[in-house]
Structure formats: C-alpha cells, structure tokens
Amino acid sequence: MRRVFRMVKREYLASVKTKAFIIMLVLMPVLMGGSGIAMYLLRGQVDTTDKQVTVLDRSGIVADMLLKAVEERNKSAVYDKKTRKKIQPAYILDVVKPDEKDPQAQRLRLSDRIRLGELHAFLEIGPNVRHPKGEQSTFSIKYHAKNAAVDNIRNWLNNTINPYLRKVRIKDAGVDESKADEIMAWLQVEAMGLVSVDEETGEIKEAKRTSEVEAFIVPVILFFLMFMLVMMGAMPLLQTTMEEKTQRIAEVLLGCLKPHEFMAGKVIGGLAVSLTVAFIYIIGGIFFLGNIGLRDYIPFAMIPWFFIFLVLEIVMLGSLLAALGSACNDPKDAQNLTFPAMIPVFFPMFIFMPILQEPTSSFATWLSLFPPFTPMLMLIRKAAPVGIPAWQPWVGLIGVMLFTAFVVWIGGRIFRVGILMQGGAPKLSNMIKWAIRG
Which residue has the higher pLDDT, 150 or 41? Predict the structure, then answer.
C-alpha cells in the first residue's frame, strides 16, 4: 500500500505542480461558461449607429402607426435618462410607395442599397394583413436585411405590428375599442411547485414559484462540472501510460511496483487531481452564491451524490484508459482508441437535454440505469426539480459500483500484459485474450 501511495503522490504532484494545471483551473470555468460570461460582460456593447429602414406598406394602414411608434421608441430608448449617453441606435423609417408594376425590380434596388450600406433593411407589408385570408403571400410581412434572422429591429417590428393589427381587427368586429387592451391582455402561466404539508406543524404549505435556475441551470452546471473533471482526471491516463511505456519509464517503475500497483497509482492519482479541482470549484461556488444572496439555489443534497458518482466515473474510465494506454506503442494508436474509450462520457453529452426535459420517462430511467452512463445521467435526473423515485439512484449506484469493479479487474489483467508488450498495433482480440488469461 505504501508503494501505491508513493505512485499516487508522484502522479498527483506531476499534475498539480505545473503551470498548466493552474492555468486550466482558472480557464476551465471560463471556457465552459464563456458564452454566458461574454454576454454578461458585453451586454452594454451595442452598435449605436442609426438604422434606416424603408417601409413598403401595401395595406395602407400600418405605415402611419409605425412612424408614431418609432418616434416614441426613439425618445425613450435611444439615450440614457441620467447620463444622456446614446445607448441604442435610433430607428429611422422611410415610407416609400410600392411599385405595383414591377415589385421585383423595386426589391432588387432596395437590396442593392443595403449591400452598399446606404440602407439597413426594408420592410414589405402585404395588402391583406388587416384580415389575413386567401393566398398567404397577400398577408405576409417580410423583413429584408443582411442578417434578418437575428436582427433586433425585426423583433421590434414584430412586437409592434401584431398588437396593432389585433386591435384593428377587434374594432372591425364591432367591439368597443376601449376594451381592446383588456381583451388582448396576456396572462403568463406561472411555474409553480407542488403544495405540501409541514412535517412539524402539519399545516398545508403553499406551493413555491419555480425558476429556470432551479430547473435548468443547477442540473446543467453539475453535469458539465462532472464532464470537465472526468476529462481532467481520466482522459490523460491513456496518453501518459502510452508515453511511459514507449519511453521505458514503465519498465523502471515495474522494478519496484507490481503492475496492479502501478495502474492503481495512476488511476488514484488522476482521481486525486479531479477531487482537488472539484473541492475548489464547489467550495468557491458555495461561498460566491452565499455572498450574493442565492444560497437557496445551492443543491446541498446533491453534493454527496456528485462526489460519489465522480469517484466511480473516474475510477471506471481511468482503469479503462490506463489499460488501453498499456496496449499502445505509439501516439497514433492512442489517438485511435481515445474516442471509443470516451463514449461513456460523450454519449450523455448528446442526450442530456431530452433527459433533463423528461427525467421520469422510460427512456431516461433505463438509460440512466445502464452502468457506463449512470454517473452522469443519474446525476442530472436527480438534480432536476421533478424528482425521481428514491430507489433509482441507489439501484444505479449499486450497478455502477459492480460495473466499476469489473472494469478495474479486466483493466488490471490487460494492463499487466500490455505494459510490457512491445511491437504491433493494439487489437481487440489480443486484449480479450489478455483479459481472459491475465
């Protein structure tokens, strides 16, 4: 055991005493959540150049309303009320008479102006938008721009034109115009939890409002944190084992270590690295969320499950990758085996969203009970606010423990033969023979 501990210490210090480890410790959360962080930091970075849009109103009822609406919008949204600094672009609408003789030629001229930068976009309103009947092209509203799909002006036009047209239709139907706002009132369906009973007093407790943070962000953060830690702790074992074998370092180490001690030291060393990072991130996250008043969102009940599944996942994959690395004789062999070996990590990445949306479905249940996928999928199911039957995480835990023990046993038998085997590409048939014969 002392020799295994020394091997663990060697692997652990070889990883954490490098500058790369410190850099990745800081950069990994930035890389994983970089999009959200960038959106937050750049939220005030807006192109404030005025946007000119030409309006072709074939209906004859929308253009005047748009001119009034854009005037109000420019007064209230373009400049900061306190600093008077320009924070949004002004929208400039230019109403042009549609060319009924050759509409396609008019569209081409306007498109050319957009290409030259003279115009930002043009809006074409169909003649029958007041009462959309008949051919669809007659009541369509089309917005033409270089990047129309994600253009903020298109969203503003959409949210301005449609309420107005609804009011017009209500008025045409003979309904009092003063009641239009009441008729069109939008009532949001609130996301609520379940009514429960206080165990101490027996009183019925009102349901609490649920949030996107609880339903989505917390499970996703735990899921991606485990993915990141597995990639950090288990993934390098294939490459480092192959390098130690090809550089004859393994032969020197095997002079004072048994093969199973050598492999155990590498796997536990990788596990220690991941646990170190996990403790830093989780303790830091608890401290940060507590200081900004979001302590209620910290999933304290999930933390023990997170560490249990993390340990099993890294030991399972680490043993497999170390065994495969022992069978490789050059970097090309290691590269070819990397992706197949990481399927237990990559596959949950592809399906985590359907699992999160329907954590109690048969698909989610049975897939999360399949041992190679259990740590990541059961974690995200248990973190979801829906709640899963209490027996499932325990059954999944027992299954993954038995499967991990099997992988460690098989991996150890392959490692014992492969670490000293030289020459020839790694073959599945050979590794099966090594696993059977030891």
Answer: 150
